[in-house]
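Re: weekly structure request thread

Next one in the queue (110 aa):
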Amino acid sequence: MIVTVSQFNEYTGNFEDSESALELKTTILSAAQELVSEYLRFDPDEKWGESVPQLVRLTVLRIATLMLMEAGENIGVTGKSFSDNSRSFISYTNYSKYLNPLQTLREVAF
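Done, posted below.
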């Protein structure tokens, strides 16, 4: 992984270290890195090893932070109330604005 749980904790300020919290953070970091890899069309870890550009690390951290906040139901959801007191929730989480700065690093697809 290009970002460790320790780095993620420092970035988010969330130092919860219960077994379930660590498992969630590891899963989120893995998913964020997978999103970045899919966008770049290659695995940054395999291509750069220890020399992964800081922009790539920051992008993983930013996306993972959004995922963590979304897991806590703090962001990414809009609700609408209806006259019968029912509510509808729609998730609007979109990571493209975080991935766009990586465009110059992206491999060309044919």
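The chain is about 50% helix and 10% strand. The first helix runs from residue 5 to 12.
Next request, please.
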